[in-house]
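As a warm-up, study this chain.
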Amino acid sequence: MLSLELSTPCAEDWELYSEVFAGIVRSVHLEFADLPLPARVPAPAPTPSPDVEAKVRAAFG
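Now compare it with the structure written out below.
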């Protein structure tokens, strides 16, 4: 089982957070002993702008 949660105190940056969250979810790779899955190349994570990065660091430390 995999459980992920996303929350943020910065509602104006929700779009960036949801893109990052989607990138994390897309990077999850599952394998089963009796059924190997094809290899996948993970999508690159979005790069936040310096001002958004500064806001996130200020909010979360």
